[in-house]
Design a protein that fits this description.
Length: about 475
RNA sequence: GGCCCGUUCGUCUAUCGGUUAGGACACCAGGUUUUCAACCUGGGAAGAGGGGUUCAACUCCCCUACGGGCUGCCA
């Protein structure tokens, strides 16, 4: 049983997406479950919009979860009850120190250029001396000895208890802190494996104390390194895309994204390009590296290119339409869908992203009269138009197959004493309005005899009328 | 400041004491070609620095440097 527990304070960060993916791969690869819990105990920063964005991001990545999305805040009474139970057990105590007092303590330490953990004067105070004032519930943490985190990624990490303060479990307004809530929820929900960013590694020590205080079983920890930008610094907005949805809008296929993210910071021998099914088979905590990985868009694109060419045509068309929808572009018309489906086979090997795929398939998305770019117009000179004109006649009656077309076109080129390349340029200009387009045979096959002839005739006439 | 984690080609990484340090992306050169892309062949490219331990260290230990994280009534 794993879980993904993002805090709803913004979009789904690419690093969060990878964390979710690792949880998902680990659990689903061995018949386990994945839970989704929104860590919204910080009422000021949590928003429903952010929650929705996170769900959209996960869904796009193709990651599903078991059961309902859990709101951590909904369990606040249970968290508070646990805090009070710790109080009753003596593993926690009431602290009446005000935030001002604590701030003053820290300021003083800083002035001396030192750092000291805050030690509450109420830790061992006689309850008879408790004032009638707001209080927080603090964990009565051990002050000597070490806490050892047995981590699947980081190994055994030993942290001196003297480094850790008595963390607050219940705020003075009765709302639980993340530190308490996360432990209670993970325990209550039956989470056995906690796979999360290594920014939580130090926190794990304190959280472990809560498990101990309550006599609960400590989960398997796996703290994975964060993702960095191309410059090796922590990934932030100045690096460009950090939100998962931005990648969707740039037109990367979800399968390619999964593949790339899986390989970022994880490896299994020389496996590079693999399906999600294969990833589920291979994925293991052992393969996760300990160093932070940098984002490399070139490799992302390459990976996505492989996945686009691996995809089934119909699935690709579906995803392409979803891409158009999220980017606010006009949807495909029925005829465009039909033609595109036929054309995908000859363009999917050459595209790394959906915008590229759309660009390569430009010839089926346009309709007559076909707009031409300058290069296309230039390649339609008088000689070329004459050949197109003659081809219009020759193409009327023949088997519409590649070998037949090949015979006709190469014959036309040699008969007119020009290279096939030149003829192909004219044909591309006629069929696609561009000189950069797929193979002329593929285009003719996809467009069919009638449309091909119409386009050739149109090109020949247009050029003639121009003089 | 304290504590924790990290450091193999430009990048992602393999290696789990003995390898000509392997693969992928990127890059360069050549080839193929019907444009673009793809593809094929070849090439350059790495163990942060310094000490140990060992017959032998990228691999184990220590120090330094650099990077990151934590140090909140944030998560």
């Amino acid at each position: 049983m794993t879980r993904f527990a993002p805090s709803p304070t913004g979009y789904l960060h690419i690093g969060g997406g990878r964390t979710a993916l690792f949880n998902w791969l680990y659990a689903r690869g061995r018949g386990g479950k994945v839970l989704l819990r929104i860590e919204d105990t910080d009422r000021d920063r949590s928003t429903p919009e952010a929650s929705a964005a996170i769900l959209r991001g996960l869904t796009w990545l193709g990651l599903d979860w078991d059961g309902d999305v859990v709101s951590q805040f909904d369990s606040k009474d249970r968290h508070a009850a646990v805090a009070h139970e710790m109080l009753a057990r003596g593993t926690a105590y009431k602290c009446f120190s005000t935030q001002g007092e604590i701030a003053a303590f820290r300021a003083e330490a800083e002035a001396r250029n030192t750092y000291a953990v805050f030690q509450s004067p109420w830790r061992d105070a006689d309850p008879a001396t408790y004032p009638d004032a707001p209080y927080v519930i603090r964990m009565r943490a051990p002050r000597s000895g070490d806490t050892v985190i047995d981590d699947k990624v980081q190994g055994q990490v030993r942290i001196a208890n003297a480094q850790l303060d008595d963390m607050i479990c219940l705020r003075s307004d009765g709302i639980p802190t993340y530190m308490l809530a996360v432990v209670v929820d993970d325990h209550d929900m039956g989470v056995t494996h906690v796979i999360r960013g290594d920014d939580h590694l130090n926190n794990a020590a304190r959280q472990q104390m809560v498990y101990d205080a309550m006599g609960w079983r400590i989960p398997v920890w796996a703290h994975i390194p964060l993702i960095h930008g191309p410059d090796g610094k922590k990934l932030s907005k100045r690096h460009g895309a950090v939100g998962v949805e931005e990648y969707q809008k740039m037109g990367y296929p979800a399968a390619g994204m999964r593949n790339y993210l899986t390989r970022l910071g994880w490896a299994h021998l020389d496996a590079e390009i693999f399906t999600t099914e294969a990833a589920l088979q291979m994925f293991d905590l052992e393969g996760i590296g300990r160093a932070p990985a940098r984002l490399d868009f070139k490799k992302l694109e390459n990976t996505c290119g492989h996945h686009i060419s691996m995809s089934a045509d119909a699935a690709l068309l579906h995803e392409l339409q979803a891409f158009l929808a999220v980017t606010g572009k006009p949807p495909l018309t029925e005829p465009q869908q039909d033609l595109l489906l036929k054309a995908i086979y000859c363009v999917k090997d050459r595209a790394k992203t959906f915008p590229e795929l759309l660009d390569k398939a430009h010839f089926v998305l346009v309709s007559r009269p076909i707009a031409r770019d300058d290069a296309a117009t230039n390649s339609l000179d008088a000689a070329a138009c004459a050949i197109l004109q003659s081809l219009v006649l020759q193409l009327q009656n023949l088997h519409w197959t590649k070998p037949e077309l090949e015979m006709i076109l190469t014959a036309a080129a040699t008969a007119n004493g020009i290279g096939f390349g030149k003829l192909a340029a004219a044909l591309r200009a006629a069929l696609a309005g561009r000189t950069i387009a797929p193979s002329v045979y593929d285009m003719m096959l996809v467009l069919g005899r009638d449309e091909t002839i119409e386009r050739l005739a149109e090109a020949a006439n247009t050029a003639q009328s121009l003089g």
